[in-house]
Structure formats: structure tokens, C-alpha cells
Amino acid sequence: MIGFVHIMTLPFLTCLILAGIYTYLGLHVIEREVIFVDLALAQIAALGASIALVIGVSIESGCSYWISLGFTIVGAAIFSLTRFKKQRIPQEAIIGITYAVSAALLILVLSRSGEGDEHIKQALVGNILLIAPQEAWRVLIISLAVGVFHFIYRKKFLLISQDPEEASRKGINIKLFDFLFYVSLGLVVTSSVRIAGVLLIFTFLIVPAACAMLFSNTIRTRLMLGWGIGFLASIFGLAASYYMDLPTGASVVCAFGVTLGILSVIKKIWGSLG
Q: Between 2-32 and 133-152, two packed helices, what is the crossing angle to 10 degrees?
């Protein structure tokens, strides 16, 4: 038990940070029906880091981070500019295409690297078990900054996510706030994709929010439920990883999947009884 606490404390605290910010952002993503946007942004960030690596920039360096962030901001601009009131092609399709192209480019770029296969694996699952304290602090600071920003403009962000037509009638600049939303999401994604990987980021963004939305219609209750679910699923995933000697990121992802399955059954039984 002492060994578990010693090894898993920092990864667990990092999971809590990620659950905290991604649960909130996930509620917006689900309301907007752009479920795969974080996958696309994470893939774009990983592509930026991979290009930096191939041109000789250390993946650990600040330069690599800024290159990744620059790529992510370009992705945010694309997503904000491709949202229209009447769309022939759903925005989710555009996001999916962006993800697929970014993933293909990542493979092509890393084929020029001697350690391409290892970097592709790193991009998918990360290595949260080996996170350094300074990386955890960076994720915390960026998450807090994004959280404060969204709290200040929470009414506009929520209205745009839940009722964009009403937001337009009220004169809110939807394209501007869409861009700010995707950039803020991209900031969090860029800071965490290297340590957590694309799959774990997607899980933190969607699963707690989806579970919470099964049981509540209010944003405050959904946040509380989502944070609690993120807390418990992270513990189960990390414990399974430690005691069964499994890859940490994949274990946490599976723990969230099992949690969603159990809660879906509970909701169905609850609904039939009601």
C-alpha cells in the first residue's frame, strides 16, 4: 500500500487536474455535438511536436511546446471558421477529417525518425506514470487559467453551446467565442497530450461529462457528478495498473469505460423503476 501511494500520488493528482478541467470542457463539447474535437486537437498538437522532433528540436523543450501550440491554434481557427447556421456538411465530419489527416501526417513525419514507432505509441497513450513535478505544475497552472477565463465568460460560452441561435440574437460574436473556446481547449490539450496521450485525454473529456449528463440537467450538478466520477475512475485505473502490472494510461481509459457501462445500466434500471 505504501508503495502504491508513493508511486501513484503524482499521477493521481495529475488525473484529478485533468478530470477537473476536462469535465467542464466536455459538457460544452457534448452540447455542441463535436465529440471528437479534442482527439483532433490532440492529434494536431502531437503532429506539431513530431515535426519539431524531426527538424532537431528536443521534444522536452519549450520550443517544441510552442510549435505544438501554434499548430493547435491553427486547428482552433479552422474549427471556429467551419461552423455555420446551415451546414451541408456537419462540423463533426470536418473535425473527423482533420483528425484523420493529422494522424496520417504524424505517421509520415515520424517515418523520418529512427524512433518513429515509439513516438506514435507515446502520442496515443502517453506515460502519465512518469510525469515530472514541473509538468504537473504546468498542467495545473494552465488548467486554472483556462478555468478562470471560462468562469468570467461562462454565460456566453454556455449560451453558445446550448442555444447558438439565441446567442446570435443577443448579438454575441459566435465565431470569436468559438475560436476562444477551441483555443482554450487547445491550450489544455497541448499541455497534457505528451504526458497523457490522445486516448486518455479523450476519455477525460467525454466520459465524466457523459456519465453526469445521464443523471442531471443542471450544469452545477453535472460538474459535481463528473468530478466525482473522474476521481473514482482514476483511482480504480491507477490501482489496476499498479497491482496487475498494466500500462497506466490504458488502465485508466478502461476504468472509465467500465464506469460508464455500470452507470448506464444503473440509469436504465432507475428509469424502468420510475
A: 30
Residue 274 domain-assigned?
Answer: no
- Condensed to tens digits (0 to 9), the pLDDT of residues 138-168 reads 899 999 999 999 999 999 999 998 888 898 8
Range of the domain at 33: 2-268
Q: Cα–chain-centroid distance for residue 61?
A: 22
Interval 42-83: pLDDT, tens: 888 888 888 887 787 776 777 888 888 888 888 888 888 877
- Report yes or no on 273 lying in a domain: no
- CATH code of 20's domain: 1.10.3470.10
